[in-house]
């Protein structure tokens, strides 16, 4: 039998880690302060729409290798305790560590003498050496093991990671070796560093992705002004192995629960250190501007002018989640654009296959064809593949004007043209 592992936090990182570690042969106890959530998890109910997660939880519960609770006491015999707590943004992007600190204060008296604490939570550089103090246990070893799980692919990313990062001081400490063994079945390369490098590597990766996506969004704007096609340009760029073809899709901006938070946290850390990392602030500024640009594109499509009057104008929105494959609305550019249109007076009706309610000022419907009714313009804001398969002739029958802003460059121009729609993409159509 594998190790006895405690996981603190049953959010998407905690629950995925717990279920996957049980799959890898360990005995896992996962604790969360939310008693109602723990009750549901004990009954095998998973409210996250992560592929394969519910099956893995059911498998672990049935095998007796996965258990859920609210009391940290159950972690008294854990050999490794994995921290998967949220670190939400505080003032100026500085991460708020209150939840982490109070959880560690409760955990400290419980931990076995040779337990190792593993931080998966994204924490500011310099946190690891402070953890024994937060625990009130100077004897406890800490290993920083940042996660790189994407929403909608979390189980796959956990079981088939690109790399495992293990930070310890010193890097080859026995505690780091124990954590490395957990991941041996994945066969992934292990990078051993000090804790500061491991903590920074997580922020650095998300910050770089944010800069990459903002770069492409400005490039798309430039393409619109000089007759170039952003797909051709990014195809050429992506074939250079130094650049890589991922994360080169323009859109309404990047969002979600991680990229925005981590980019701001990295910018804050640089400022605190007196390092000029204006590049990051600029990526954030470009991202805000990109959302505004999409609002202007929809206004232009609906009224003929980028600042046209939207009062009483009906707009159909396809997609609200921050990306396809999830119902997550946190910091979603789609929500930002839809609510901005509503604030300008538009009557916004939206459909998203994974969202049924909860967007201020926007009527959320459960049928994509309802968004088109009397719409002066439709806009695709999330790249759900099913939007490509919609019957655009059927949509054409109920709209007021046949114009669609394809903010994800998702739709097939020929089917749109066949249905009589004017399609306005990002980085392709000349627009002023
Ligand atoms: C991101 C990272 O990709 C993960 O590696 C990391 O572990 C995770 O944050 C985290 O810190 O927990 P995730 O938030 O699931 O994962 O989302 P991504 O797939 O990275 O997408 C982020 C945003 O960028 C989305 O709004 C997406 O639409 C946008 N994006 C992505 C683009 O605008 N263009 C692209 O080409 C790719």
From TrEMBL:
NAD(+) binds at residues 32, 37, 87, 122, 151, 261, 330. It comes from the Bacteria. Pathway: Nucleotide-sugar biosynthesis; UDP-alpha-D-glucuronate biosynthesis; UDP-alpha-D-glucuronate from UDP-alpha-D-glucose: step 1/1. Substrate binds at residues 148-151, 202, 247-251, 255, 323. One of its GO terms (molecular function) is UDP-glucose 6-dehydrogenase activity. Its EC number is 1.1.1.22. The active site is at residue 258. PROSITE patterns: PROKAR_LIPOPROTEIN. Keywords: NAD, Oxidoreductase. The keyword GTP-binding does not apply. It catalyses: UDP-alpha-D-glucose + 2 NAD(+) + H2O = UDP-alpha-D-glucuronate + 2 NADH + 3 H(+). It is an enzyme of class 1 (oxidoreductase). InterPro entries: 6-PGluconate_DH-like_C_sf (IPR008927), NAD(P)-bd_dom_sf (IPR036291), UDP-Glc/GDP-Man (IPR017476), UDP-Glc/GDP-Man_DH_C (IPR014027), UDP-Glc/GDP-Man_DH_C_sf (IPR036220), UDP-Glc/GDP-Man_DH_dimer (IPR014026), UDP-Glc/GDP-Man_DH_N (IPR001732), UDPglc_DH_bac (IPR028357). Pfam families: UDPG_MGDP_dh (PF00984), UDPG_MGDP_dh_C (PF03720), UDPG_MGDP_dh_N (PF03721). Residues 316-413 form the UDP-glucose/GDP-mannose dehydrogenase C-terminal domain. One of its GO terms (biological process) is polysaccharide biosynthetic process. Belongs to the UDP-glucose/GDP-mannose dehydrogenase family. This is UDP-glucose 6-dehydrogenase.
